[in-house]
From TrEMBL, chain A:
<comment type="similarity">
    <text>Belongs to the TRAPP small subunits family. Sedlin subfamily.</text>
</comment>
<dbReference type="GO" id="GO:0006888">
    <property type="term" value="P:endoplasmic reticulum to Golgi vesicle-mediated transport"/>
</dbReference>
<dbReference type="InterPro" id="IPR011012">
    <property type="entry name" value="Longin-like_dom_sf"/>
</dbReference>
<dbReference type="InterPro" id="IPR044760">
    <property type="entry name" value="TRAPPC2L"/>
</dbReference>
<keyword id="KW-0813">Transport</keyword>
<dbReference type="InterPro" id="IPR006722">
    <property type="entry name" value="Sedlin"/>
</dbReference>
<protein>
    <recommendedName>
        <fullName>Trafficking protein particle complex subunit 2-like protein</fullName>
    </recommendedName>
</protein>
<keyword id="KW-0931">ER-Golgi transport</keyword>
<dbReference type="Pfam" id="PF04628">
    <property type="entry name" value="Sedlin_N"/>
</dbReference>
TrEMBL record, chain B:
<feature type="domain" description="Trafficking protein particle complex subunit 11">
    <location>
        <begin position="252"/>
        <end position="483"/>
    </location>
</feature>
<keyword id="KW-0175">Coiled coil</keyword>
<dbReference type="Pfam" id="PF11817">
    <property type="entry name" value="Foie-gras_1"/>
</dbReference>
<feature type="coiled-coil region">
    <location>
        <begin position="730"/>
        <end position="765"/>
    </location>
</feature>
<dbReference type="GO" id="GO:0005737">
    <property type="term" value="C:cytoplasm"/>
</dbReference>
<dbReference type="InterPro" id="IPR021773">
    <property type="entry name" value="TPC11"/>
</dbReference>
<protein>
    <submittedName>
        <fullName>Trafficking protein particle complex subunit 11 domain-containing protein</fullName>
    </submittedName>
</protein>
Amino acid sequence: MINPGNGALCISIVGKENARLWSGLSDDASRVVCEVELFAHVSLDIVDERATKATENYLGQVYSDHLYKCFAYVSSTGVKFVLVTDSKSQGLRDSEMRAIFKKLHHAYCNAISNPFYVVGQPIKSKHLTEAAKQIFAQ
Amino acid sequence: MDPVEPGDWVTGRPQQLILLTGLDPTNRPLHNVLLAAFYNRTPDRPAFKVRLIAGDADLPQKTKKKKTRGILRKEWPNKYLNHVPALVVLFMDLDWDHPSWSEKLLEASSKTESLRNSIQHESRLLVVLLQEKTTSFPSEGEEKANEFCHHCQMSSKQLFVVNTAGDLSSHVGKLELAFHEHAQAFYQAKIKTIRSRSIPNNSPELLVRQMFKLGFLSELRQDTHTALRNYKLAYDHCQNSQNNWEMADYFEWRSVAGLLNYKICELYFLHNTPRDAITLMNKHMSAFFYGEPGNYPSAQLAGIEYSLWKSKQSWQFAELFERAVVNGLTAVAAVNPGTFLDYASTHFATANRMIRELKATSPISASYPNPDPLASAVDFYGQRPWRVGPLDTATALHLERAAIFALQLRLHENHDGLMTLLSAASMQYKKYGCPRLHRKIMIESGDAQAAAGKPEEALKLWTHVLREGTLPENLRLTLLNKALWSSYCNVLLKETMWSVIQLLRVEPSGTLDPLHQEIFMKICDAKTPANPFSTQLAENQVQHISMLWKQKLEESQFFTVNCSKLSTFVQVSACFLQTEPVSVDMQVPLRVTLTLQTSFPITFSGVRVSAYHCESSGRRIGTADDQATFNVFRSNITLQPFTPSHFYFAIDLKDSASILKEGHLVTIGRVSLEIGDRTQKGVFSTFEWDGNALGRERLNLLDLKAYGQQLSVRVVNMVGTITNIGDKNIDCLLAEIASAKLRLKNETNRELSDVRIEFKRSEQASSSASSVLFVDDDNELRGELELAVASSMKPGDEVDRALQFSSQLHGSVDLLLESAFKISGEKEVQKGRVALTITSEDPFIVRSQVLTLNGIPVTKVLNRSTHLLKVDLKSNADIEITRIDWLLADVVQNALSIYSENDLPSPDVLLKGDVVSYCTPIDIFSQEDSEDEKPLGRMVVFWRRCGSSFSVRSTVPLCRTVISTCPVSINVEVGAKIAEMRKPLLITYVLLNNTLEVIEATTSFDLTDTFMFSGDKLRSVRLLPGVPLRIEVTVMALAAGRLSFPRLTIRSPSIADSILLDALRNLPATIFVLPLAKEYQS
């Protein structure tokens, strides 16, 4: 697996009721799409557990195994943002990870501001795509 | 090939070994009891185990070690756990005053000498004397003990005396503590010995061995913190020397590192520091799980060996973790034993896969080598059986080749082991509420079952996971492909179609796999489908499966796929096109919209819509779920890709008019698409969508097209009914007989006969409706009503009817009157509803209070005294009060009956807002002296609305008041009926003692300028219980008019002034005095 900068492989946005709203994969994850998606998916179990006790939106690293690490952020409305990185990557500092999630959250807000967007349905948004591209390219 | 099992010793806590000798439990009951007390080990007692030996012959002897190379001997821990005792304890029955004392001394000396000679490994010898008698002189005992020790060449600390006549359990407890201390000293000595051994060249093997031994002996010494330190040092040496390991020794080093990691984690959990244990395990994985597996004995075998070792490491930690959880540790979803079982299963699956690949790439046809190169027992952890003992190079190479060969022959995929790990992980994830991780394990279990050649089991697991709607898309497609392969291999027609119709769904911009299209089309045409994954199956297997498919499809096949919760190749929605309620004689239009979500057109043999009727609550009527009330069908439809096709149907309710009732709902229950011909040979498949799936589109609130669409319509009686166009909201007073003017209109277009209005309590929606009573034709109040309205009504006719009623509750009440009528020419009685709302309020507001005789309101009244009761009635409407009755409580007596049991001389007429007051004097006589609030009773008011002839009797409660104790009651009697100026007037004050004791008091008469006075101005009186005392004074008024009444003051040392002041407050405040000049006749 290619292991660039922050090692971000997948970004997933999941609604409060666990509806999959948006997900993006980096080019590096193209050969392990299923594994990365499955890892992001199962990490939501831990996110759900942590979110109930969290005192801030950013939950930090919530789950890891020998291949991947998962970071999470939960908005005030219960929307879950999950970022999966390669476990062998250098990783980012908490402040940098917070900034990434803030950026994602901002892009998400822009996306759902579309008056034709139906809440709870999958999102198709250039804002999110652009934001994810930038994160993967970092 | 499997990781080396450490042995049974590793599972429990190490215990010190103590050997007992000299006891005869078979023939001596006392010895038996003593031995049983030692055998009975509980956690609160010193951690050692005892074993009875017959004599010195059973003591372990030193064995000569073979000079072999290795790190940790497998049997070394067992040496101290089961063979080398810390203590040998000799028990002897010997009293101090034994008649053959000298002979006994010789015997003891001989026994101890013999044991001492046999004991090796520096175990300690202790002697316990069991005595039945005690000596009365302690010095004698000491003397004998010294003599005994001298003869047996032992110190006095090694001798213990137990008096068997006393409490044996306390002696055993003390002995155990003493044994424990001696045992610890033994292990400490051993530790010193081991530590003093020199390690040439700081050899890592020897360092690790030494640290492990020190750790283990510290554990035996019950010093777990020192043990932990030594184990950690040994582990660090292992980790630091990783780069220097020889490839042939990888397995041995990893085995030792794994053992040390296990011991350290075990102690961390024991010390209640689970975070440290988890951190160490994570570090252990980082340090040892990602290295090179090596290529000894071969690259493939080393890889398999490495994966199995990693799996074992994770499994062992999970076991430790689970044991800690059982002992009270709290785990969480992020870190729990399941996490490590999951890791273990992953590595185990990798090992299975590598074995499968090895078997596939290097098939071996030769027989197993003889002699077996793997038969040798190994001395060290991780040692290879073919490397035991010194061998010359040629033999070693030959053995090594044979061993590789034997290992490859012995290797097999362990599917059961993998499934066990997965099941254990699954249970843990369930326990800690991790549904997604649980489903991940199900996916992996499916893979394991497929690898084990059980595709039907795998299919069950994958389909179960696929039913969850929130799976990531790529994962869903992967699983669908797996399910397709599995169902194809098992020749499962329905399941194959279930997978294909989901795989056929693509986005308009997406591309469809032509293989899926081909499989779908071939199955529809009853032809053998193409093999979805030709590479996974051998040619002969493909042929066999194709033959099975052919056989299957030669017969008629019927199956139904429930697509309600699936994302399939067709998107279906349905709705009624009428939102208004419908009558049973109507046809209801409905629309079904089908959108093909795949890239090629499909022709269906038909679309069927099923509807059923249900109660207004939505409860289905009838038992069979699949039994539809209405069915409509359209044959031969072709759907074009991504183009919505609308199909319009009409449901004729007349067909089921007999079972439809007003209020029922007709609901679209199912839409089915059919392929094939049911009557002919071939495949007939049905794809069904139930009501929930059909209404899903309507959840889109912003979809304007969906506005007004609904899956249900309500059935109403459209024949028409009787309506009320008169009073609908009536205001009335509580309990009055009020009247509502109903104007009933025939809204049907038919002539009606026998029109009636009925009120039935059981039909009411509101429970408060039963509080309304109706006046029937006999002027009686009834709970239910049946009122004839008209014998005949033509269409549009209006009939006025007064409805008299009485509401017994405050507030608003909704009534549902039932209209019943017959349509001329028909026998059946039709029914309708007429709604009325009645709002009732109180006729008046009541306020009552107690006053003194002087008209001053009081909050509490004096017992045995007279007061005034005043009731104010404030009218809420124009009413007339015709009579009032006082229903006073037991503690109150009406001092003067007015109006009682009689009508008022003339009715009191009150307009809305007027207030009328009624007063009556009351005497309070309470037997109790408590100062609780007491009710004064009720008042009955007879009233009627102005102009009405119906009188209403209302009972209203009077106020509550506190009755306070009055030790002395004071009344006054005036000598003449009329007081005249300058004429003597006798005034008598009557004092009555209400208590049971004599009261001393002083009375004084207050002089004023308006009266001349004759009598005692100051007087000391003694009030006897129950005897009235009269104080008479004669006064002469010097002025005329309303004068202040002559005042008496009373004081008593035994009664508070405030109480006496209250008693005096009831005396008249003023007196009216006539002028002198006029003659006055009484």
